[in-house]
Amino acid sequence: MPSTTQDDVSTSLLLASVQATLDSAQESMDAVRAMLSPGRGIVGSEEAALSAAIRTVPRWHFAMLNDLERNDAFEVAIERVLPPGAHVLDIGAGTGLLSMMVARAGAASVTTCEQNPMLAEITRQIVAQHGLSDVINVVSKRSTDLVVGVDLPRRADLIVSEIVDCGLIGEGVLPTVEHAREHLLAPGGLLLPESARLYGALLDSVAVDRLNRVDYAAGFDVSLLNGLSTRGHFPVRLPTWPHTLLSPEVELYSFDFAAGPMADGSAEVDIPVTETGEAHGLAVWFDLSLGGGVRLRNSPDNLASHWMQAFVPFAEPVALTKGDRAHLRLAWQDCRLSASKISISTTMKGQK
Fold it and tell me: Does residue 171 have an active-site annotation?
């Protein structure tokens, strides 16, 4: 029997990936055919359409809308920073909640954009239900496709958005803000949120690491699956898993949405080790400055937040001793956080 090389394995996985993509496209086409099938009748077509629509809307929308701390923070910040007579752009309408907050706070007009056609239509209907259609215009587009004078009457005096994930950057806030500042914001206009800081700590947790890594199962080597592990950060509700923080909370990086660079980048981070253990990665969370002195955090001690924390896995666990210092590079690229170039400096006993 001929031996299988690593190139053979890689080629097979690539072909399987292409097939999976084609199968997904076929599933979408089958759903459209089911909706348009004359034999299904109105009720059958409506059920098929609803089933397809449900698959396009992430479940976290429900938890997000029920996050009272988040909702209250945005409403207070909007009330504090909204300029009189402002035209406001809300990026990522969702269900239109922030747009309606802005309208209730006294905005002259609001344009809100949503790339998901189903959510855009839901927003239109919710806005109409509350009698705000004269103030709020819903556009079913990405913000990067908006044209001033066509989709919105003029550049916005205030741009509101909430397009952050557990690790801040995962929903594309950086390129979105960069484009909005250049093309959609009026001179002297405001951004809400205005800035953010990333914090983190070294994490020892086999349980969390195994959410994205596997070696053996029932005695069988299944480690090939690691080739499909998540690249970059992923969400984890840290208090629900056995873990030890091997360092204090440290600031990893800060982003100035109003004027700072929004491109992919990296930062060198130096972290003091306060507990002996094996670091499997970084636990990361954000501190979001909305404006008007209002802040939002998804730190591990904030159990009420719908946002989890982000876990940034190391390629391999790193043994650490109390008193060491860990040096690493934290990178943000393609909406993902990653850690690399990890090195350890050890403080000898009695050395200052």
Answer: yes
